[in-house]
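Notes for week 9. Today we move from apo structures to complexes. The key idea is that a small molecule is not decoration. When we ask for a structure prediction with 76T present, the ligand SMILES becomes part of the input, just like the chain. The input block below holds both the sequence and the ligand string. Read it once before you look at the output, and try to guess where the molecule might sit.
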Amino acid sequence: TQTTRPQRILKAVQKNATKGDPDSVISAIDHYCKHSEWAMNVGDEKGSILDSVVSEVNPSTVLELGTYCGYSAVRIARLLSPGSKLITVEFNPAIAAIAKQIIAYAGIQDKVTLVEGSSGDLIPKMKECFGITSFDFIFLDHWKDRYVPDTKLLEECGLLRKGTVLLADNVICPGAPEYLKYIRNNRRYESRYYPAHLEYTKVEDGLEKSIFLG
Ligand SMILES: O=C(NCc1cccc(CNc2ccc3[nH]ncc3c2)c1)c1cc(-c2ccc(F)cc2)cc(O)c1O
Ligand SMILES: [Mg+2]
């Protein structure tokens, strides 16, 4: 019977990475997606920009919307200080099951809580379910038409504080034009664009970093 792409990515990790070594998991996924089959991980070029923003913010509480295979969850969690937490939201149960295994293989499962469901349902429950008062860092990488409604929802739920950093993937490809319009024309945010390329390709893409000003 046919395997899925996430299952094939997990197999590549189990074959080529070292258990408990997050950097080897990241390299194994990037190698597989460069040489065997493309997949929608943030990738190594945009991933390095993600690393630099996470290191600069050094967040205690992180929200990721869109786990996929867990590649960016591993990238983020490996940089977090002890006691810091990443909550990552995945809608698709089959993908979540794979991501859980990849996160565990990397050995950073103690820093990561993977929650199955949709952002719209889960964001209003963050405070009561996880005792979160606000997020220090948010990585948006789920359905691109959810970036605006979910940013508004995060504001309404009081989950942003002065200085919260939002980083959005794919603002050029596949694109999130409404998000760019919303966030760049909103005086409650200070935004900056980081040009890069769509993972594993030469196609133009980039990340939009926005600081909530309160
Ligand atoms: O679309 C994308 N990613 C989002 C996505 C997509 C599918 C399924 C899910 C299921 N996960 C999910 C859904 C809804 C959710 N709500 N809350 C959590 C949550 C989680 C998520 C994407 C596409 C491309 C791309 C494709 C093709 C191409 F030619 C160029 C570029 C590149 C990327 O880097 C991308 O990130
Ligand atoms: Mg993406």
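The pocket of magnesium ion (ligand 2) is lined by residues 40, 42, 141, 169-170 (CB under 6 Å).
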